[in-house]
Amino acid sequence: MVSDVFDSLLEKSSLFINREVLRPTYTPEVLPHREKEIENLAQIFLPALRGEAPSNVFIYGKTGTGKTAVTKYVGKQLIKKGEERKVNVNFIYMNCEVVDTHYRLLQNIANHIIDRWEDRIPFTGLPTDEVYARLTKAMDEKGGVTIVVLDEIDKLKGDEALYTLTRINSDLSRAKVSLVGISNDLKFTEFLDPRVKSSLGEENMVFYPYDARQLQDILEHRAKKAFKPDALASSVIPLCAALAAQEHGDARRALDLLRVSAELAEREKAAKVTEKHVRKALHKIELDHITEVIKTLPLQSKILLLAIVREEREKKATGLKPSMTTGEVYERYKQLSKKLKIESLTQRRIADLISELDMLGIITARVISKGRYGRTREIELSTPSSEIIRILQDDDTVNPLILYGGRGQTRLI
DNA sequence: AATCCACAGGAAGATTAGGATA
DNA sequence: TATCCTAATCTTCCTGTGGATT
Questions:
Q1: How far apart are CA A136 and CA A120, in angstroms?
Q2: What architecture is domain A211-294?
Q3: Cα gap A158→A173, rounded to integer Å
Q4: Residues A37 and A205: beta-carbon distance below 8 Å
Q5: Is the C-beta of residue A124 closer than 7 Å to nucleic acid chain C?
Q6: Can you tell me the distance from the alpha carbon of A284 to that of A353, in angstroms, rounded to the nearest whole number?
Q7: What is the spatial distance between Cα A217 and Cα A64, in angstroms, rounded to a whole number?
Q8: Distance set, CA A102 to CA A155, A176, A185, A383 (Å)
Q9: Quick check: A348 CB within 7 A of strand C?
Q10: Which residue of A109, A227, A278, A406 has the smallest Cβ count within 10 Å?
Q11: Which runs of E-coded beta strand occur in A105-202?
């Protein structure tokens, strides 16, 4: 019986009551240690309920300090109140890491406003000012106050987009737009067009990182909803809080850590989540992140990565330091792409891809000077090569570079 | 002190892909 | 269909440079 498999799994008493509470997408109804910020922001949004445009706001703070949660929370309440009082209030949340160009920003806002599917704006093809024209038209048809939240606003390319948005009110007759900029880069506004800067910074808010004590409160709060009583060993929450506090007081990290710890414990059929599970979870989260990144790498970067792996293995075999230069990697890369019969990129381009891999944390590449023998980057893997191979084995295009020798022989690189 | 390697990394333009419009 | 957009990717050409060697 197939269903038996699930029956036994379902029967087994779970540690969780509701694990959704621990996910980053969940907006809690109580945000401990952020009461002041909530009130502050609500105060700023208040005019929207009278049909007036609130001031633009700029919010700073590191990741996981509750910027997004607070904004979304207040936004939710605002919409609720707006419905109660029959005031036309719109609240649009957008993450600029995903929507990072002038065009796409306008396109996305417009598509939030536009209801009819056939009027939606395509992701490419139109001139940007045409998108802008359609957006203003749609907004005026709808009317009311629209609050646009631009999360991770520093990821936006070029400040033209922001300039357009800060000016949009002068092109609208019936509708009004207010902006909320969220950034974790404190220096972000320094490089901004002064006009945008003054317009966007009508109000400023700063979110400071949580300390270990506050993180503990947050975790305890959520744990009450997420877990059955006594599911956690008493040291688990303090440990999660302490580990996350080390990493700049990031609440999201703390919650992830707690959730994954519990999931591991559950899989082990442990009666309680213990410190051991937390340690394991810490490792797993890191690995999962890297796995995901490597899997979704573009083809050329995968080949490049394998070139680095291969070079490293060779160096190790000869008893040398496992670090290499751009030139060496490039030669290896050309060799591999030739084997795959794939056009190889120029060294300039590869240099950029190396920087990307560095930023993703898969390798470390720092500029060094070898004096007479030139200036280059010293490249090293920061992920075990065995992991990289394991991940890329599943990639049909590049796995001929890993498995060769044929006849099911699995010789690795 | 001067030289010069092996690149770093900026600028600008070309190419490709996807889509709109007449 | 031809012609026009834009974004993303990649190439070409370029100037700049830290420090071991001369």
A1: 14
A2: Orthogonal Bundle (1.10)
A3: 27
A4: yes
A5: yes
A6: 26
A7: 15
A8: 12, 20, 20, 36
A9: yes
A10: A406
A11: 144-151, 175-183
Residue A197, H or E segment: helix A194-200
Q: A291 CA to C9 C1', in Å?
A: 24
Euclidean distance between CA atoms A72 and A77, whole angstroms = 9
- The answer to whether A349 CB sits below 7 Å from nucleic acid chain C is yes
Q: Where, residue-wise, is CATH 1.10.8.60 in chain A?
A: 211-294
Q: What would the two tokens of residue A79 be?
A: 């919409």
CB A180 within 8 A of CB A71: yes
CA A372, C1' B2: Å apart?
Answer: 13
Of A309, A279, A303, A316, the residue nearest A382 (C-alpha): A309
Rounded distance in angstroms from the CA atom of residue A127 to the C1' atom of nucleotide C4: 10
Q: Which fold has domain A298-412?
A: Arc Repressor Mutant, subunit A (1.10.10)
Distance A282 CA to C18 C1' (A): 39
pLDDT at A405 over 50: no
Q: Which two tokens stand for residue A119?
A: 């009027």
Is the domain defined by A34-207 classed in CATH 3.30.930.10? no
| Over residues A217-225, mean pLDDT | 90
Q: Which nucleotide is nearest to A122 (CA to C1')?
A: B19
In whole angstroms, B6 C1' to A348 CA is 13
Q: Which residue is nearest to nucleotide B20 (CA to C1')?
A: A125
Render pLDDT for A99-132 as a digit per residue (tens, 0 to 9).
777 788 888 888 888 777 767 777 777 777 788 8
Q: Inform me whether the pLDDT recorded for A347 exceeds 90.
A: yes
